[in-house]
Design a protein that fits this description.
By secondary structure, the protein is α+β, with helices and mostly antiparallel strands. The chain has 17 helices and nine strands. The two termini are about 30 Å apart.
């Protein structure tokens, strides 16, 4: 879903599966700030999270681990939570654990809010797709969080309308463009999909699939590559389709977009694994008429996908019981009982590969009852998640995307200048914040 709307993502997953104001405070236990103090007696941990019913999941842990009690404090998601964590960390009053989106990790690390837990959780690496694990390390030997959930990108399409118009499901982006043009020629009132300038997270995921590295480091300097060749390729591809009128250029998540999906004016959607939950409410009359396929590829010999959404479990530098907090984070994201509860209670698509099929995900979503292997296919796609490179000012880049690409999409004027403006705004902000930037 769009950046900072994880609650919408979770709600969509909850539909798919059928499934108070709080004060910032750290652990009340004694010990030093880096969590190396010897632990004796019961440990009390505080966990800030926004996923629904996380307290029910934590209670399973508490029942089995009476000496390490975890209390969940429900929070808002997105930038609001990031700001709250940073503020609490500066006052040395952060909780022990936080739920943080992947793209928020560099911001939190640069503000000294997250602890390196590599020594405590290194053994969990193989439980996750390499591309997800890499996002928690920021390209270093450190580990700042454990992957919790993910949103691998896929292509969703109307099987009945593809058949009606004699279309073949595209496996490459060249085929995708050909399919869009063929549909427009046969049915001018229909479109294969839309390019939505409201959805910076989707564009980031598409660039990720193509191999983009928007933020990297050179020594102590940040290097911004938002206008790198991979992203330019993605931007040029979509701007070409928009300029030709081969696809729509209206934003998603509007009444008009819902209607287009429900009536078949749009017959496809590039989205993530949580899409069935959105379609259930956006296009209720189309149940059983959709199917999911892998995202079209730039290089069919090297399958890859990007991500749209997802979060992690991190331990803060304020935690006085880092080892205990890391133990809970590992259990939460790798233990079969915990993962089953996350799916059932919190409506998430787990990052752990072993939990992406079977259990609550053994059967396809009701909306995709005609595709019984939905989650088996999804798990195979998730394994191909490409690495992503995030930086400390994702919010600035995303805001610039919406502003610049919004104007370009409306004018059908191409996305080259918009991408350059996005790059320039991100670099300028880094410098303004006092970061060194490599040219």
């Amino acid at each position: 879903m769009p950046h900072a709307t994880y609650r919408g993502l979770a709600a969509a997953m909850a539909v798919l599966l059928g499934a108070t104001a709080l004060t910032a405070c750290g652990s009340s236990d004694s010990g030093d700030r880096d969590g190396t103090a010897a632990e004796s007696g019961p440990v009390a941990l505080t966990y800030w999270a926004w996923a629904p019913n996380m307290d029910k999941v934590a209670e399973l842990w508490n029942q089995k681990n009476p000496n390490i009690k975890v209390t969940v404090q429900k929070q808002a998601s997105g930038d609001d939570l990031v700001t709250k964590i940073i503020t609490a960390a500066k006052a040395h009053q952060a909780p022990d654990l936080v739920q943080a989106e992947y793209q928020a990790l560099p911001t939190l690390v640069s503000n000294d809010a997250l602890a390196d837990i590599s020594k405590e959780v290194g053994g969990a690496k193989d439980a996750f797709a390499p591309g997800l694990w890499q996002q928690t390390t920021l390209g270093s030997d450190a580990v700042y969080a454990l992957p919790q959930d993910s949103g691998p990108l896929m292509f969703f399409y109307r099987t009945d309308l593809f058949q009606q118009y004699g279309l073949t499901v595209p496996t490459t982006w060249d085929e995708f463009a050909t399919t869009a043009k063929a549909l427009k020629a046969k049915a001018p009132d229909k479109a294969l999909t839309t390019f939505s300038s409201n959805d910076s997270g989707l564009f980031a995921g598409l660039a990720q699939q193509a191999g983009a590295q928007w933020w990297t480091t050179e020594g102590q300097k940040w290097k911004v590559g938002i206008d790198d060749p991979a992203t330019k390729k993605v931007a040029d591809f979509w701007s070409g389709l928009v300029a030709e009128g081969a696809i729509d250029n209206q934003p998603m998540y509007t009444p008009a977009w819902n209607k287009a999906l429900n009536t078949g004016e749009q017959i496809g959607w590039v989205s993530a694994v949580w899409a069935p939950g959105v379609l259930t409410t956006a296009a209720p009359d189309t149940s059983g008429k959709w199917a999911m396929a892998p995202l079209p590829q730039w290089d069919a010999s090297k399958p890859a996908t990007g991500s749209w959404g997802g979060s992690t479990t991190a331990v803060t530098t304020d935690s006085k019981h880092k080892a205990a907090a890391a133990k809970f984070a590992t259990w939460l994201n790798t233990d079969p009982q915990a993962l089953a509860a996350l799916v059932k209670e919190s409506g998430i698509y787990p990052a752990a590969s072993a939990a992406q099929t079977g259990g609550a995900l053994a059967e396809a979503p009701d909306f995709f009852a005609n595709q019984p292997d939905f989650y088996t296919k999804a798990a195979e796609i998730a394994k191909t998640t490409a690495p992503a490179a995030w930086g400390p000012n994702v919010n600035v880049a995303y805001t610039s995307f919406k502003d610049e690409f919004g104007k370009a999409a409306k004018a059908k004027s191409g996305f080259g200048a918009a991408l350059t403006a996005m790059q320039d705004a991100t670099v300028a902000d880094l410098k303004k914040q006092g970061f060194e930037v490599a040219q």
